[in-house]
Structure formats: C-alpha cells, structure tokens
Specification:
Elements: E1 2-8, E2 18-24, H1 28-33, H2 36-58, H3 67-80, H4 82-114, H5 116-129, H6 138-145, H7 149-173, H8 177-185, H9 190-228, E3 230-231, E4 234-235, H10 237-246, H11 250-281
Antiparallel strand pairs: 1-2, 3-4
Helix pairs in contact: 3-11, 4-5, 4-7, 4-9, 4-10, 5-7, 6-7, 7-9, 8-9, 9-10, 9-11, 10-11
Length: 287
C-alpha cells in the first residue's frame, strides 16, 4: 500500500502543522509484482512452459524430452529410491568438502590479516590456484588418493578454499577504521577481535563467498562424478546422469539435471536466504 504525506498550515498560524497521510490501494498486479517469491515463481513457470513446448516441437526423446516425460522419470526414480540414494551420496561428499574448505579458508584468512607473511602467502596462493579449474586436479587426486571419496573431497577443497578466502579477506579489509578502534578500545585482541568485530562487520562479503563457494563446489562435484563416478563403491548424482546416458535413458538424464537445478534453487532461496535474513538483514547491513 503506497502513501503520501501532505503538510498543511493555516494562514497566519506558525505554531501548528497538520499532516495528512493519504493511502493509495495497490492493484492486484502491483501487489503481485512487489512479491519477490511470486515473480521468481512466474519466471520458473515460463521456463517450464518453454521446455514443454520445445520438447513437443523436437518430438524426439533421445534429443530433448518434454518436461512431462522428465517429470515422470523423476517421480519414478524417487519412488524406486535410486535418485534419493544418489542425491544423498553427493550431498554428503559436498558437505564434507564444503565444511572443511570453509575451515581451511578461515585459518588462512586469519593468518593473512594477522601477519605480513600470511598476507603474502594468501596473495601468492590465490594468484596461482584460483584460476586453476578444480576438475584439472582430478588426475592428480586419482593418483594420490585412488578412486574414492578422498579424491572428490580434495577437488572440492580446491573449489571452496580460494574463493572463500578471497571474499573473507576482502570483507575484513573493508571494515571501517571506526569499528576497528571500537575493538581496540574494548581491548579485544586475537580471535576475540576477529569474532566480535571483523566477522560481523565483514559478514556480507563472507556470505557472498559462501554462496559462490557452494556453487563452485556443487558443479565441481557433479563434473567429478561424471568423470569417475563411483566413490567408495557408491555412485552419486553425477554417476546417475552418466549411467542413464550410457543406457540412452535421456528422460532420466534430464531428471538428474533437474535434480541438480532443484537442489541449487532450494539451497539459494531457503538456506542462504534464511542465513541472510537472520544476520545481515537483521543487523541492517542490507535492505
């Protein structure tokens, strides 16, 4: 509901000011358009219709199945338990690599803001390894750790550590001098200073790093599973896609891709949105 304020003053009266608040009812379309969730839902529906229409135009399940055929395969795979089992395998590996990568990035960043040699180390390492695709390390991971979960976690670490460390360091460096002085005045040092001053002030940058690192890790995991698939005798979502491609079950392949997309949407719009609402928005750091 929109509103406008009009100030009125009586002639010859300098002591009293009257304000009238005029409220204008928004139309149904304006209320709809003001809702972010509804706008995003509309975009997804438009894309879904385009997928279905294009699938009918192609009319070849081996090239591009319709959304309805993909959804049928998706539901069947969930009912059989195969897809859920593959998803859990991938998510478990992803969470391991993601959590360990954030912990390593935190240690490197704290050293970087504490010592000059730490800063130099972070700058050199990020310049060397950040441009290097994580999947390029896969042959080395297989040579060092063999065909198993350790190899996948290793490449996931590479996807997470450098982008997370860069964003965190950038956020720390952007903390205002005033906040730094507040911490010094309260005689905060070491980890207390980092935890109570730097991290809250730099959290928008840290959260951005977490989002980017999650996206990098997710696509690296799927790519790694597509390349050598089975980890510790059990395949993940990427291996599910690869298997069905070999069987020419293209609707199942698209069902696997759809699962990747759905998980990405859920993590971005529920998990990270909740963290954002509970932190930076509550603290008044974002509108």
């Amino acid at each position: 509901m929109g509103h406008a304020t009009i100030t009125m003053r009586k002639a010859g009266d300098t002591s009293e000011t009257r304000s009238l608040v005029l409220r204008r009812e928004l139309s149904s379309w304006q209320r709809f358009w003001a809702n972010t969730f509804l706008r995003k839902t509309l975009i997804i529906l438009v894309l879904a219709v385009a997928w279905q229409v294009y699938g009918h135009i192609v009319d070849n399940d081996l090239l591009f199945p319709t959304l309805s055929d993909t959804f049928v395969s998706f539901v069947d795979s969930i009912r059989s338990g195969v897809l859920l089992d593959r998803v859990w395998t991938s998510i478990r590996l992803l969470l391991m690599g993601y959590a360990l990568g954030i912990a390593i990035a935190a240690i490197i960043t704290i050293l970087a803001i504490s010592t000059r040699i730490g800063t130099d180390f972070l700058e050199v390492m990020t310049a060397m390894f950040n441009p290097l695709p994580a999947i390029a390390l896969l042959p080395l991971a297989l040579l060092w750790f063999g065909l198993g979960a350790t190899s996948i976690v290793f490449v996931l670490l590479h996807s997470v550590v450098w982008v997370m460390a860069l964003n965190t360091q950038g956020g720390f460096l952007a903390v205002s001098h005033t906040l730094r002085m507040v911490g010094r005045n309260y005689e905060l040092t070491g980890l207390n200073y980092v935890a109570k001053i730097l991290i809250p002030a730099a959290f928008p940058s840290i959260l951005t790093g977490m989002k980017v690192a999650w996206a990098f890790a997710w696509r690296t995991l799927i790519a790694a599973e597509l390349v050598f698939g089975v980890a510790s005798g059990k395949g993940g979502l990427g291996w599910y896609i690869f298997e069905n491609r070999n069987l020419l079950n293209i609707p199942a392949v698209f069902a696997g891709l759809l699962t990747v997309i759905i998980i990405g949407l859920l993590v971005e719009n529920i998990v990270f949105r909740l963290i954002e609402r509970k932190t930076v928005r509550r603290w008044g750091m974002q509108s």
